[in-house]
Amino acid sequence: MVQAIRVHETGGPEVLTWEKVEIGEPGPGEVCIRHTAIGLNFIDTYFRSGLYPAPAGLPFIPGNEGAGVVLTVGEGVSHVAPGDRVAYVGPLGAYAQERIVPGDRLVAIPDGIEDKTAAGMMLKGMTAQYLLRQTFDVTPETTLLFHAAAGGVGLIAGQWAAHLGATVIGTAGSAEKVELAKANGYQHVINYRDEDFVERVKEITDGKGCDVVYDSVGKDTYPGSLDCLKARGVWVSFGQSSGPITDFNLGLLGTKGSLFATRPTLFSYIASRADLEATAGDLFDVVGKGIVKIGVNQEYRLADAAQAHKDLEGRKTTGTTVLIP
């Protein structure tokens, strides 16, 4: 038996319960790992609240990413062995001291990258990778807007996009978060509590608008995000921290300049083993070279996951947060 956080009914942070669970032995293609750190992500709150239904129903263990040490491997697993340091983004179940993981979801953590860093960067870092390198190919000619610039994905994306030579504009909700974003690659940061971000984007771009807008906020930034785009620009909606968009009007894309809209998810971009290795490899490369620095800004005990969720949803956290078993 190991300790884990489980959800027996969806709701607020108070539904996260700390209890003993049985995890069993790894089957064919599976690996048992002992977590050393677990990543906290906004998607965790979506599953906890019921906004996203847990695939296997209730009860469930939340969490999609972690890092740790391989304990045992099942039949057919040859790319990792007991004692290896590994990280993953995978199916729900990360909020536990130990867990069984599909072996093909594990990647080796390179020397020089700490477990806490790996645990907190896999989902957010690979999200930044597919957003900047695959969903839209960011180049020195690109002008982009990234909402929630001081969030976990935002801080990684700002550094990476600046390295790619883009003009990087961000939004944030406090003076402190504005400064944090500026320290992480953003040339222009708009405090959306004090300024109209649409008008400021127009000023910054001399009325031209952006090539691409990355929007993980949802309800509060729609349809304003569309008004920040050039004709034939791309709106990338990849989250909904302020709530879902319930009144999306496809016709707006035409009236606002023949815009493109997409709703990507990381799991579509890393579905195959080859895609996972390529995406993770690109992330490890920029982190290993110091191009992107991953700041673990908050740590909580795994048993205190409810408080971590309260702080995350209350916008009291910045950058990367990890849970320590």
From TrEMBL:
Alphabetized CDD domains for the sequence: QOR2
InterPro entries in alphabetical order: ADH-like_C (IPR013149), ADH-like_N (IPR013154), ER (IPR020843), GroES-like_sf (IPR011032), NAD(P)-bd_dom_sf (IPR036291), QOR-like (IPR047618)
Domain Enoyl reductase (ER) as annotated: residue spans: 11-323
KW NADP (keyword) present: yes
Record keywords: NADP, Oxidoreductase
PANTHER family for the chain: QUINONE OXIDOREDUCTASE PIG3-RELATED, QUINONE OXIDOREDUCTASE-RELATED
Protein name: Quinone oxidoreductase
Native source species: Roseibium polysiphoniae
Phylogenetic lineage: Bacteria, Pseudomonadati, Pseudomonadota, Alphaproteobacteria, Hyphomicrobiales
